[in-house]
Amino acid sequence: MMKFIKKIGSKLKNFCKDNPLLLSFVAISVINAFLLRVFTVKFAYNQVKPLLADIAAMLLMGSFSFCFKTLKGRFRYLMTMNVINLIFVAGNSIYYSNFKSFLSFSLLSTGSQLPGVMDAVFKNIMEAKDLIYLWAIPALAVVYHFCKKKTREYDSQTKQKQKRSRSFGFTAVCGLVILGIFAATLTGTDYSRLRKQWNREYVLGTFGMYVYQTSDAISSAYSRINMVFGYAEKKEAFDEFYDEKDENSEVAASAAKNDYTGIFKGKNVIVIHAESIQQFCMDTYINGEELTPNLNKLAREGLYFKNFYAQESVGTSSDSEFTFSSSLMPASSGTVAINYWDRDYATTQKMLKNMGYYTFSMHGNNGSYWNRLNLHSSLGYDKFYNYTDDFVIDETIGLGLSDKSFFRQAVPKVMEIDAEHKNWYGCFIMLTNHTPFTDIERISDYDITFRYKMYNGETGLYEDVSAPFLEGTKLGSYFKSVHYADEALGQFLADMDKEGLLENSIVVLYGDHDAKVKATEYEYYLNYDPFNETVLTEEDAGYIPVDDFYYNINRNTPFIIWSKGGECKPKEISQVMGMYDIQPTLGNMLGFDNKYALGHDIFSIPDDEENVVIFPNGNFVTDTIYYDSQKAMYFDLEDYRNVMTHASCNQVYKDTPNPIYDATKHGLFKVSTDEDYCADTCESRINDGIVDDDYIQSYASYAEEIIDISNAIIYYDMITKTEQGFEQSVEAQFDSDSRAELFTPPEIGKRRTGIPM
């Protein structure tokens, strides 16, 4: 046995000595993949598994270099593979910074949207770390340079061929052996997530960069093939899903009607698509003044849903438009706007058209962006007004026509529509508050410094002091942009009111997604000390970290329903709500119903039950927890107040702005630990036993089911193709007076009383 081991060791030693170029290629690729995990998923997953997978994949890829006769030929092959790997690694690093997920071949079709946002990519998304991977190119070139000097010619072509064959076989076998060892460490959950692909962070963190990207390529190709041959399987799953949910329809119907049923029937609908506005902005004060006074006024006077999440995926704004209109999830592969716009969806616009409404949309960008000319027609809009054809471009900020000019020009168009149609539904898509936000700097004088007073012993007077605070930061530019958008919104509603267009209308406003501001910006925001003009670091006791939970929980956006007529009393709704819940909620108020909706009328959920918001990556949030399916961890939300609205200097002094400096108080600002938001407090809320495994598994299974059914509807145009047969089995459960909902949260979702399950 020892002889055999020594023999293998000797062969391995000789192989390494003879093939430094191949081994360098493997090492470089594995190191870059490791760096990608460090910069993205960090060390949230087992480090041995992805390392084994990356080594095995690169050995198998590198083995084909021996198909080339010369060292130069092998170098060309390996350098080509090296560059391809580099593109994938750097691309995934950049992509993760914005979407907290990884690239997929299914996204190639969305590449046409990049030119319009390249400025955002370079200014707001790409970082210096994304250039680190470039070391791979000169490193391999240097190794090749030294290999050339040591290359010797063999006696004959036959011997060269034999040696290349042996090297190929040895490399491939080593790769397969390591791959086998890796496979032996995997669990059933690992294989399931690899196959489904939508939990990409988990897949890359477990299977490594190269197995993930290979699997994704196969999965993307398979999904296209399966689009042709997989209909029967998905149809069966679709029918089973409805049959199972149908059992709960009578219970749901009994609780369907509520105080808001039909309350806005016959009203015109003004939908405001508020670009990139996050909810925490509405609770933000700068030097004691509201950042968003007009939004806050709407919230105080209307129905304000404070824990609302957008549920968007890689299609960002277009995903939100789709989910808002259809109560379906975004597509897991590709985007509805680009890949699946030509399906027949049950949308709010179509149902209102059936009730006699004229439906239209307006946007200050071109009609081709996110394929809106086609998408909006598919959703059921009668007309899409866009800057290419319908607006005078008299002021541009960022990606297109400024919001103030857009709204100013929109009012006369609405007046014409109102004169011609008894009822109408209009969606106004805002644009100025779009990443990277920096263009707002040339027109905004909004003050984002921190002001206080300090005694001057020489003059005997208290003098105003202005600490820079957010000036020169991306978050500062975002706040300026949000404030501008709020001003534009206030101007629009005032102009509409002046023309009498709010008299018989409701305003529905939603934030389409978060601002994609990075965690480092929030860490600066939370740890800035204006009195000493310093920023705390991890070594400081008062430092507040922004982990994934703090970050993701803060991604919620505003949702407001407002009416000048006062049909309902102002109310703040704290129950968690998602974009897919808007259509059923509005449908109950306006008098229509979509039996294919995956969301719920928020006012029909019993008091003893929780709602659940499912995200496209499998994460979910309830009133009790935020669950990260990538890491299989949850964060306890009970009594949690958003760190972004409580811990920064502007928020601490929001009720006592422009304070008079006191060295014994302000000089020690943020010196001691913040017990509510420090790292230990955050850690104590993670997997703290507030819920049990049954609670997690029930919602996780429900999330998977909802995602799969939504994908089936999207990919296979299921509503159209199954309508006739489907009607026969469930149509009897619906009538014009019914609000029966087939889709109910799991039974485990009874509202918690604070007792761990």
UniProtKB/TrEMBL annotation:
Family: Belongs to the LTA synthase family.
Name the record gives this protein: Sulfatase
The keyword Translocase is annotated on this UniProt entry: no
Pfam families, A to Z: Sulfatase (PF00884)
Entry-linked PANTHER family: LIPOTEICHOIC ACID SYNTHASE, PHOSPHOGLYCEROL TRANSFERASE I
Subcellular location, record wording: Cell membrane
Domain Sulfatase N-terminal intervals: 267-591
Transmembrane segments: 21-39, 51-68, 75-96, 131-147, 168-186
